[in-house]
Amino acid sequence: MSGNTAIDYRNPGAIRKMGIDALTKELGPVGMVYFIQQYDRGEGDYTAERENLLAEVTPESLLIELEAMRKHEQQSI
Fold it and tell me: CA 20 to 30 Å from 77, out of 29, 36, 40, 57?
């Protein structure tokens, strides 16, 4: 916004747009996206999801899977 245009700081949409515009002007579009990603909280419960996904993973199961992958890779050569 330029000139004598009044800024309504109580309008979240207007503030968000001004912020994105300012970031884009200073950082470029790609830099703006990287900056915004630093503050993206995401959604869900990462800890619970990770525990659920890895519930049955043990060091032993990882070794077995790695050995199977190596055997498969050697057979493909």
Answer: 57
Tell me the mean pLDDT per 10 residues along the chain, length 77: 72 92 96 89 84 91 93 87
CA–centroid distance for 50 within its chain: 16
This prediction has a pTM of 0.46
**Range of the structural domain that residue 54 is part of:** 46-76
Domain count, the chain: 1
42 backbone φψ class: left, alpha, beta (φ>0; ψ -120 to 50): left
37 assigned to some structural domain = no
Q: How far is CA 21 from CA 6, 10, 33, in A?
A: 17, 18, 12
